Each structure stands twice: as C-alpha cells, then as structure tokens.
Amino acid sequence: MAAKIIDGKAFAANVRERVKAHVTRLVEEHGVRPGLAVVLVGENPASEVYVRSKGKATKEAGMKSVEHKLDAATSEADLLALIDRLNRDETIHGILVQLPVPDHIDADKVLAAINPAKDVDGFHISNVGLLGTGQKAMVPCTPLGCLMMLREEHGSLAGKEAVVIGRSNIVGKPMAQLLVKDSCTVTIAHSRTKDLPGVVSRADIVVAAVGRPNMVTAEWIKPGATVIDVGINRIEKEDGGTRLVGDVDFADVSTIAGAITPVPGGVGPMTIACLLANTVTACCRMHG
Ligand code: GUN
C-alpha cells in the first residue's frame, strides 16, 4: 500500500497561524513585538534563498524582521561586534547567523558569541548542553520540526526504534537527543556505519539527513516505517534544468513506508515555522 504523505506545508501553515495569533496577543496585551535578526555573510545563493524566506515569514507573522547582509570579506571582529550590538538590542529577541560562514571566520566562535537566550537556532554550546541534559533549551529548528511531525503521526514515540542517518550538529545529533528524550531507542548512522541498509531496516522511524540525493531506497525500509527526509539536493534533469530531491528515493520508498515526507513540501516549511516559534519563545522568556 502506498505511504501516507506527510504534508509539511499544511502543518507549517498551521504552526505559523498559531505563532501569528501569539504575536498579536504579545503586541496588544503586553506592548511587545518579537524581533528576529538574520545575519548573512557572503554570497552563497542557497543561503540567500533561505534568508529571504525567513525574513518574509517573520514579517508575515507580524514580527520585526532585520536582515544584515555583510560582504564576504567582513572580518571576524566586525561580525562579533554586530552580534554584540544585537545581543544588547532590546527589540531583538532572536539572532540567527546563517551557516556556512566564509573560511576566514571561526563559526564556533561566532555561535558562542550569541546570547544563548537569543539563540533561536539552538546552536550555542550552552543550548546544546541544556538539550543533552534534558533541560529547557532553545531547540534547533529542523529537528524540532521533524519531532513535531513524528509526534503528530505516532502520538507517543516511546519504545520506537529510530535511526538517524547523519551526525551533523545542525540536524543529526540534536535529532537523536530529541528522540532519546521521547524514549525512542536511537541509533545515529553515518558514512562509516557498517551495513547501513541493515541498520536502517530495523527502524520504525528513519530520519535521513546526509545530503546525498535519493540515497535511501525501498530495500532499506521496514514495511510501515515512518520516513522523514531532511535532504535538500539540487540535481540536474535530463532537459538541462534542475530539480530538488531529498536523501530518500521518494517514488521507491513510498511504496513500502507507512508515512513519508516529500521534498519539497515536507521538512523545509516546518524548519521556518519552528524558527518563528522559537523567536516567540525567546521573546516570552525574556519578558517572562
Ligand atoms: N545552514 C543550513 N541550515 C541552517 C540552519 O538551520 N541555521 C543556520 N543558521 N544556518 C543553516
């Protein structure tokens, strides 16, 4: 039987409506408008698309949106000075530095300079530690969006076998932490995993976040499993154009999975919705 397609776009629209209603209440009842600052260094075309859609969504939710587009040659010191200014700006509740940053800038140092209370990406080492110890943290947006869809699909995740493919700080590791917190039995698989298809085929829940187009095929998947595809890969079509595909071979895997997210229209929209939700959370905690 064909898998249920998880409509991330519709789910995200719902989250964004709730965020917008919350923003309206904050403005009308407390005189506070949540503000998000997005910082982009250099001219990465993919990053520019992400930053534009983040800014548009922020405004649509009724929040203050500030974009800082810095030249690729911007020094680390100048970037740190901007972050310091944003940290002290009371109209800004969330700060996001789009990654990757150019090679001459130390990304870890930049992330560490963001006030953890404004770290809506959840990448600051103190938020990473809070999440890892099960405390109240800012949770990275992409894994948070995946978790919301999984909870909606399954209700309780307790006791489920989950395999996360990919060990990045942005997705794989925090995703695994969230699944452990929801009482899954979690495996993080990666490029050095032996018998990757065998490991994945044990899973009730598969989260693919490796950046390899169409890598996961039907033979890897336990019948009825839920498959969340975090990959966004641009590949060439036969007619010379390009199209976006995930890390999962959608046509193949949807013949055996129980539920699956499409690319585009799955995880991507949820990431932006969670960024808006995190900004409202940061604002509420700050004005507590
Ligand atoms: N680059 C790719 N994904 C992300 C993300 O979620 N946040 C930031 N800041 N940069 C990214």
From TrEMBL:
Protein residues bound to NADP(+): G166, R167, S168, I232
Domain Tetrahydrofolate dehydrogenase/cyclohydrolase catalytic intervals: 6-121
MF-aspect GO terms: methenyltetrahydrofolate cyclohydrolase activity; methylenetetrahydrofolate dehydrogenase (NADP+) activity
SUPFAM superfamilies, alphabetized: Aminoacid dehydrogenase-like, N-terminal domain (SSF53223), NAD(P)-binding Rossmann-fold domains (SSF51735)
CDD domains (alphabetical): NAD_bind_m-THF_DH_Cyclohyd
BP-aspect Gene Ontology terms: L-histidine biosynthetic process; methionine biosynthetic process; purine nucleotide biosynthetic process; tetrahydrofolate interconversion
Domain Tetrahydrofolate dehydrogenase/cyclohydrolase NAD(P)-binding: 140-285
Gene3D superfamilies to which the protein is assigned, alphabetical: Leucine Dehydrogenase, chain A, domain 1, NAD(P)-binding Rossmann-like Domain
GO cellular component: cytosol
Pathway annotation from the record: One-carbon metabolism; tetrahydrofolate interconversion
Keywords attached to this entry: Amino-acid biosynthesis, Histidine biosynthesis, Hydrolase, Methionine biosynthesis, Multifunctional enzyme, NADP, One-carbon metabolism, Oxidoreductase, Purine biosynthesis
Catalysis: reaction(s): (6R)-5,10-methenyltetrahydrofolate + H2O = (6R)-10-formyltetrahydrofolate + H(+); (6R)-5,10-methylene-5,6,7,8-tetrahydrofolate + NADP(+) = (6R)-5,10-methenyltetrahydrofolate + NADPH
Function: Catalyzes the oxidation of 5,10-methylenetetrahydrofolate to 5,10-methenyltetrahydrofolate and then the hydrolysis of 5,10-methenyltetrahydrofolate to 10-formyltetrahydrofolate.
Family: Belongs to the tetrahydrofolate dehydrogenase/cyclohydrolase family.
Subunit: Homodimer.
Protein's UniProt name: Bifunctional protein FolD
Organism of provenance: Jiella endophytica
